[in-house]
Amino acid sequence: xxxxxxxxxxxxxxxxxxxxxxxxxxxxxxxxxxxxxxxxxxxxxxxxxxxxxxxxxxxxxxxxxxxxxxxxxxxxxxxxxxxxxxxxxxxxxxxxxxxxxxxxxxxxxxxxxxxxxxxxxxxxxxxxxxxxxxxxxxxxxxxxxxxxxxxxxxxxxxxxxxxxxxxxxxxxxxxxxxxxxxxxxxxxxxxxxxxxxxxxxxxxxxxxxxxxxxxxxxxxxxxxxxxxxxxxxxxxxxxxxxxxxxxxxxxxxxxxxxxxxxxxxxxxxxxxxxxxxxxxxxxxxxxxxxxxxxxxxxxxxxxxxxxxxxxxxxxxxxxxxxxxxxxxxxxxxxxxxxxxxxxxxxxxxxxxxxxxxxxxxxxxxxxxxxxxxxxxxxxxxxxxxxxxxxxxxxxxxxxxxxxxx
Length: 405
Description:
With 405 residues, this protein is α/β, with parallel strands linked by helices. It has 2 domains: 40-264, TIM Barrel; 271-397, Lyase, Ornithine Decarboxylase, Chain A, domain 1 (Beta Barrel), CATH 2.40.37. It contains 12 helices and 18 strands. It has helices at 7-17, 26-39, 57-65, 75-83, 100-109, 118-128, 166-176, 195-207, 236-254, 266-269, 302-306, 393-397, and strands spanning 21-25, 45-50, 69-72, 91-94, 112-115, 134-139, 161-162, 180-184, 216-218, 259-262, 273-284, 289-293, 312-314, 322-328, 336-344, 351-355, 375-380, 383-388. The strands form 2 sheets. Strands 1, 11, 12, 13, 14, 15, 16, 17 and 18 form a 9-stranded mixed β-sheet that branches.
């Protein structure tokens, strides 16, 4: 079975469901997860899908069906995970600047909880003491990731409790008899250098004696996904080998077996996703040929927000003469998907597909300019399944309350 969606399947989906349209390949998600499982065979590791990348209920149900756990960044993601069939012990909730009420709700749901501030750690101690195990997210002052906006471990980051505040952490732990069973560090996204994770492990190594209840070393996620031709992602087999060595070192030094956790999001779903668009207009100027499509950063913000590269193909004219285009959206802003991009000749009415759009595509979408969010389709067992309907005007109005004059 092919792990890519063919041009013919993309065109058929566009014909049946219209454009713009998100389409996902279920078996590609399965294959990505299996790669992790195979690479880490024999390593005491556990994987949690970072569902902030894509929370469609059908996708979550598929992730659950292949045996993966789930990582949540909000209490509503926790509730979605439960609805998708995950058991509480399969769910990890890592808080970030949230109210303590959200943490209380996570505890009530029975899921694993990581806390990222001294303030909420103290509140947790007052509320639960030693009755409920808890993890802490640390800020290790490591710069990593492909873009400052997705780097989360440096010394200017809002994420985690700074490692310099270890004394305060231990004071709270001792005062409230906290059972801290997990140390968590997530340094960023698009991490290609395996040694970043080993730096995290080195930090954990020095901290183990301070946390007698420690069972889990959580190294976060952020595996690099290749976007451009010839680009390489994180070397997962090498990562597994190095992590296995690290766990052996921990066990020999401390006489205790620790489990390592990872939270891949983009790695599992990025390559499974495609955004299909239709070309509204070709606008030729003395310097640029613009191909204006019926989508925009309201559907895929990554190129504008992160200057991210996404490969774009012309489905309707795959053998046309290659020309240089700016592929632009229909939003009333500077709204580009690509600049100076060689693409087979684009004509008005052609279908273009934007690849590697499964992660942080639809999930970061909006109704800006009162535009509808697109439909979503899942290709599973070679069958197209509608997993979210396209917005209608009713969806734009359903929570609004007009005035009477």
